[in-house]
Amino acid sequence: MSSVDDVLAGLDPEQREVAEAVRGPVCVLAGAGTGKTRAITHRIAYAVRSGVVDASSVLAVTFTTRAAGELRQRLRALGAPGVQARTFHAAALRQLTYFWPRVIGGEAPSVIESKLPVLAEACRQLRRSSDRSELRDLAAEVEWAKVTQVGPEDYAAAAAKHNRTSPVPAEEVARLYEAYERIRRERHLVDFETILELTAAVMTEHREVAAQIRQQYRYFVVDEYQDVNPLQKLLLDTWLGGRDDVCVVGDPNQTIYSFTGATPRYLTGFAVEHPDARVIKLVRDYRSTPQVVDLANLVIAKGRSPHRLELVAQRPDGPRPVFHEYDDEPAEAAGVARAIRKLLDQQVPSREIAVLFRTNAQSEAYEEALSKAEIPYVLRGAERFFDRPEVRHAVVLLRGAARSAAGEPLASEVHHILAGIGLTPTPPGGGKAREKWESLKALADLAEDMAAEGADLPVFVTELERRAAEQHAPPVEGVTLASLHAAKGLEWDAVFLVGLTDGMIPIIFAETAEQIEEERRLLYVGITRARHHLALSWALSRAPGGRRSRRPSRFLDGLTGRVPAAARTVSASRERRQVAAPVSCRVCAKTLVMAAEQKLGRCATCPADYDEALLESLKAWRTATAKEAKIPPYVVFTDVTLQAIAERVPRSEQELLSIAGIGRVKVDRYGEAVLSLCRSAAP
């Protein structure tokens, strides 16, 4: 790049305003597809090349290793190498490891990548059993507690205050949390949250450490600021040390991680915290067609957020988003597979197509439908590309071959090596064999691309190692299947948003107004992943022949031509009032006061008469249902509710609704399965 002003070339007026705002405090409110990464990299490059700041004094903080790698790559291209772009954890760990021998002494602690082994040991010590699914839920609770600065002794009260749905009783989570922390300290281990805590503590308690770090880093940029949690904010404030040369970038419309402790209030309140801050909005959407942008704006405008950004489309017109209603889930999956086949026939690459859903448990129907249609797919959010066994094996072989490379053409050499471990000229039919083949094919395609640029085998292996470190996987040929959360930050030519029913989005567990609004933003994120084609669909029942009782998401009210949810709510509330009458014991006729007794329909002391086999069947069904949805079993139905069902053996929806505490939402979601078990029970 010939001159400093060339850095500003090609930026739109708002992006240029960001780039020229070289001194903080600056807050960039950047909508989806508006080029925020372009704006902040040009801002850093312009500040460095114009002499405002030295490259080594800049710390750009991102949320993923891949995003950090992309920032560094772009900055090198803009003539600003040497800028430190790291995640919060990577930056903190580097500082903590450097200063540990000096201020604490001894060997620095080891970092644990996963809490599960330590939590499993905590469970063993407390003499309780937990499966892997429950351990993951417990790990999520411990992480939430730690990022919100809640200790074990305060967990139960904090969980109640924040409406947390813990996998086991809150008091038990607190005991496991305490045991986890004790074991971690005894074994000289740190998790990601402890790294941030200790770095902030070392800087606070040792002025010379704080002075050296603040002397090094004088200029801060923080991406995805709407996802910052209290612990990350604490560390950022400690790094700044009262200074305000900071630029934050985020989108209040894409706040979807509050369940992990993230909060948008630092972004939306930035101008209050820094009254002299410059606030710049990026709203020109370069990603999506006007039709997709219009739908995104309509969905978010119906919400209650005062901080939303209205996008302005910059691309030419495209097809209107389409809405599809299906009788059942298999029909929906088959319909989506047919639509994908049409796109493939129109030469849309499979890697440019995505099917997005609310929960990972929904993926199975689409995996089956795509397999039947012989359409390759990639399940995102499962095993990371460079962690796959076939990829690790391939990298080992390629690394060994690179040491004795004899000048063979890169592409042919790589193809020869990969052919020895399963890369064939044509792909296998499906399943695990197809997934393995797609991984190897992605490596071969990358080799061909780099061969065209003149790379040899050692250069190719070096590039693979860089990508592995940054988790920058090569594109794998196949339709992407992913949850809406896993899709954030990504984009495709064609997106299918599936399973859009009330109870799924918003999810049935979203009860407060804030939780409902976050579900709305999650749908907005899904919509804004699409560049050109967008399809939204839902199924009226779970299985073929089932009762068609589901309703499309309330977030689509007014957009699909159906009756709005508000009109349905009146009758639903009347229905709930009808089952709220006083309940009498069916054995002794005494009025029941306790909730558990009302649920059972009898006094706790009155004799119980129930089908034990039915109760066991109900419990087995509940366990399987909870596991599939990745939720605690009691969220499906409590033990008392299952006992009441087994005692009363309802044979119709009305009989099921007559059980205290079972409402229309539960019946719509689980009624068909429960009644089927009851009807098949012995009379």
UniProtKB/TrEMBL annotation:
Reaction(s) this enzyme catalyzes, per UniProt: Couples ATP hydrolysis with the unwinding of duplex DNA by translocating in the 3'-5' direction; ATP + H2O = ADP + phosphate + H(+)
Keywords per UniProt: ATP-binding, Helicase, Hydrolase, Isomerase, Nucleotide-binding
Domain UvrD-like helicase ATP-binding residues, every copy: 9-289
Keyword Aminoacyl-tRNA synthetase in annotation: no
EC number of this enzyme: 5.6.2.4
Residues involved in ATP binding: 30-37
Domain UvrD-like helicase C-terminal: 290-532
Domain HRDC: 608-683
A single GO molecular function term of this UniProt record: ATP binding
InterPro entries: DExx_box_DNA_helicase_dom_sf, DNA_helicase_UvrD-like_C, DNA_helicase_UvrD/REP, HRDC-like_sf, HRDC_dom, HRDC_dom_sf, P-loop_NTPase, UvrD-like_ATP-bd
GO biological process: recombinational repair
Keyword Nucleotide-binding belongs to the record: yes
GO cellular component: cytosol; DNA helicase complex
Protein family membership: Belongs to the helicase family. UvrD subfamily.
Name of this chain's protein: DNA 3'-5' helicase
